[in-house]
Amino acid sequence: MDPLIDNSKREFLLRSAVLCAGSVLGGSRTLFAQQPAAQGSGPYPTEGMAGYSATGPLKVLKFQRRALGPKDVAIRIDYCGVCHSDIHTIHGDWGKIQYPQIVGHELAGEVVAIGTGVSKFDVGSRVGVGTMVDSCRHCPECARGAENYCENGNTQTYGSKDRDGSITQGGYSKFIVVDEDFVLSIPASIDLAEAGPLLCAGVTTYSPLRHWGVAPGKKVAIAGLGGLGHLAVQFATKMGADVTVVTTSPDKVEDARRFGAKDVLINKDGVDFSKYKRAFDFILDTIPYQHDLDRFIPLLKRDATLCRVGVGKLTTPNQYGQMTTVLTRTALAGSNTGGIRETQDMLEFCAAQKIKPQITKIPMGGVNDAWSKVIAKQARYRFVMDMNMNG
Ligand SMILES: [Zn+2]
Ligand SMILES: [Zn+2]
Hints:
Shape: globular
Helix content: 25-40%
Structural class: alpha/beta
Number of helices: 9
CATH class of the largest domain: Alpha Beta
CATH architecture of the largest domain: Alpha-Beta Complex
CATH superfamily of the largest domain: Medium-chain alcohol dehydrogenases, catalytic domain
Bound molecules: zinc ion
Radius of gyration: 22 Å
Largest sheet: 7 strands, mixed
Strand content: 15-25%
């Protein structure tokens, strides 16, 4: 037998054996670090925190991630941000879902194995995954890099039908297998724990700020200072705009200024907004529940836009008056996350401008408590599950 073939065969067997051991042990960095490729490895046993009903607590679910395909990377998840969308999804606010469901779409970790056709990542790469794990790849939206608007519906990181017909399970877990085209590279200067929230909250606010041309000389209002809002303020400020924060929480004024806001408007019933009438070139509305848009739209200059990125219960739609937009030719718009290329651009922008989320790390088991705090508006400003923290 040709000694070369013999050697590569032996090497392959060795690799497979080590990878199996690694997956059972939960992914040892040193074991995996020496393995260059691993097509055919898996499926990988793992576990996560799943919702079992619309109202009950999240509980541990043991399950498997698919075996590596040629273009797949296997990622040991170290951190996952807690997004309000996760809560809305499990509570059924956005429609019926199938339980048990693991949510989480702000995950960051390290590549521990790659398929034979993977070209963008290697074992040891610091990576993240946001809200999508696949899309049709051929519609006009996908062709221009806007997979978030895929005409055939992209595959969301959780709660979507995957290519094998199963429902995708998200990042409140320790391990995931994702096609490399939907994996982001985390710049070296960004802490992995702080990378996750950029992949949903970050790009969800970055994309509309870019789309509506936020730049020096523009006056921008950010409505809502939560997980999305606190990043939006930093983005708009670093893009050169003059930023005002609109918040219902007086105790967030100091924070708003620290993130870059020049002005803060406390949004309470009866508060007079007339000083801000026709003041803004753009309003980014991050509030994740129904509220009175007639309070905000008149604050726009003529022809300016208010864009919503927060979404509340679908059964309680937002309404605005018949005259509100007519009087000043203003526009009410929405925006949904960003494409993969744009998400990578956003990460580079964060690295260059030193933008980062303010996070509180929690153990996996602390997620139910964290959800209660998010609902009570007590998050400052993003809870991040640390999969290696005990508790
Ligand atoms: Zn999210
Ligand atoms: Zn598409």
